[in-house]
Prior knowledge:
Largest sheet: 7 strands, antiparallel
Number of helices: 5
Shape: globular
Radius of gyration: 15 Å
Number of domains: 1
Strand content: 25-35%
Structural class: alpha+beta
Helix content: 10-25%
Strand order of the largest sheet: 1-7-2-3-4-5-6
Order of helices and strands: HEHEEEEEHEHH
Distance between the termini: 38 Å
Amino acid sequence: METMEMTQADETAIADGPHMSNAAAARKFILGGKAIFTLQSQRTGKRFTYRVKQGKPSERYPNPAYFVGVLTGPENTTDYSDLGMIFNESTFKMKRDGSISADAPSAVAFDWAWKALQGAEMPAMLNMFHMGRCCKCGLPLTDPVSIESGMGPTCRGR
């Protein structure tokens, strides 16, 4: 299943949720290690939810690699399908043998957004919302600075 049906309550929660408006902060959030976020096209209104987890360094990947998944089921904490990986904190590569094809709307959207976020400005056609949890440790965010950045005070200090 590639797209999810949204209820009016879901639509309101996303529209009112923590919004990322700075490209550098968005990149930092995505590479936090435990990021869950929704990307929405302002042109089409379509949206997809992604999870990006930092992998442990290995002999094959000595620099941190980040595993990108897209929400494909009803449980927003576990129903993610592998989409690809981010290498060297900049290059996104689709998973070759994944269940999501490179031309699937969720794959095209992430690839476009990731490339666009490499610039200095947040793309005008992109809305990005986080789930109100720290991108590094996953704890709920409560203070305004943490909510805006997507990272709690302890994790910001690391």
